[in-house]
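Folds abound. Consider this:
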Amino acid sequence: MKMKFGICTPSKNYEAAAKIGYDFIELPGTELALMSAGEFAALRARVQETGLPVISLNAIFTPEQKILGPQPTPWAELCAFFGTMVRRAGLLGVRQFGIGGGFARDIPEGFDRAAAAAQYIAFVRLLSDMAQKAGIGVSIEYLRAAETNFITDFDQAKAMHDAVDRANVGLLVDAYHSAFDVAPGNVLRAGARLWHCHVACPEGRYWPRREDGTDYAPFLRAIEQNGRPGRVSIEGNAPGEFEPAAAEALAVLKAAARQ
């Protein structure tokens, strides 16, 4: 299986990512949802002209959106926002998007955790039903406890996946959001549920660099051993200007994949 490498970045870097040699790009879902009709038409034309696949979306929540607690964002607002995002994602050929958004799913102090879990399940079902109509999968992602107080490890993500019980809902494993030596095991434990992967340097969440001291090979080998999804996106902080930093990150991962 030839590993495919992508990068999470706004659409302004689309052509640069293609020139560098990435296999796909992962765009912010919020960017798609908030574009004007004209801006989206222009992006779609760029994708058709350049041909770099838009496989996935990340960053699907705005800072104001909340899905848990006593005063979540109203369903009507969520449906309108995500309806636009999903429809446009389908037109671009997106295959899946992850549900991260630690701030959106934080459980407010004093709010019942069982009630919050029920809210989360209802939200993911709503989103997955929208996505299914566009032929898109949805991935539940665990995040570091420093970023959220809900779904902070693989077991919790799997429990939510099982509770949601939708055919187009899977799991996303991000090497940054667990101890780096634990991430390969999580990839294997996900099995057929694994729909997407993210990677970044564990120190500072920077894009991979030649001198960052991180061994990325075990994580990439685990993806190969799993047999799916056969791809990984770099997600994190650019250590410099986009083109040189993105080119170095891709070279580092390709070298690790050959080990």
